[in-house]
Amino acid sequence: MASAIITELRRGGSHTLKAVQRLVQSERVETVLAPELLHLATSNDTNVAVPSFLAFAKLCANSDVPTQLPSIFSAPDVALAVSGQLQSPDIRIQAAATLALTNLTSHNLALESTILSRVVEALEAENAHEGIQRALLGYIGNASAVPDASRSLLEETNCMQVLTELLQAGRGESLRSAAALTIGNVLSTRDVMAQNQLREVGGLPDLVLLLSSSYAPDTNESSAWALSHGVHLNVLSQVNPT
């Protein structure tokens, strides 16, 4: 079955497009198709690249990805190729790349420091679409649950500063709420560095403002979640009385 699909994907033209479209609509995309789909996803033909990337993103959620993907090609190389599309001028490609990376994090993949840095850079891009930013926040939330990745976010990127900027007035409430939730996820590791960074970038006042009844209950809850960890008594951050 997979070999027949690969043949169709390689035929080019309308044959390739139809094969990719069928994969997008299918219930499951076989992991073995990853190389073919990633090749098409990074091509210059957006008519084929967009659905190919969506199909690739779908297969990244497969349970056999951790065992099958390394036997096909290097997982870090895959993540690098995908993250390189976060700066694509086509928002559809950006969305597919974000979905693929987020799905890979469910397998503890795509968490290298270079990938983390690229995600944060895309998050703070001047022309970033709020929908893409919310999706990128999902990636960061997943990454923060992995100790090494969480530490890399704090030590090697300006993640906390960027997240705090997304809390500020002028942003959509759904984005501000998602940013607050993500800050809470990063802080939930009880890492003193995260708590200190939140204070240093002035994030606490912005979180407090989101507790107002003028905001939706979900926004209030996200802010409260972040604040509960931002001011949590962390023995590592306390100075012993003399």
From TrEMBL:
Source superkingdom: Eukaryota
Cross-referenced SUPFAM superfamilies: ARM repeat (SSF48371)
Coiled-coil ranges (or none): none
Protein name per its UniProtKB record: Armadillo repeat-containing domain-containing protein
Organism lineage string: Eukaryota, Sar, Stramenopiles, Oomycota, Saprolegniomycetes
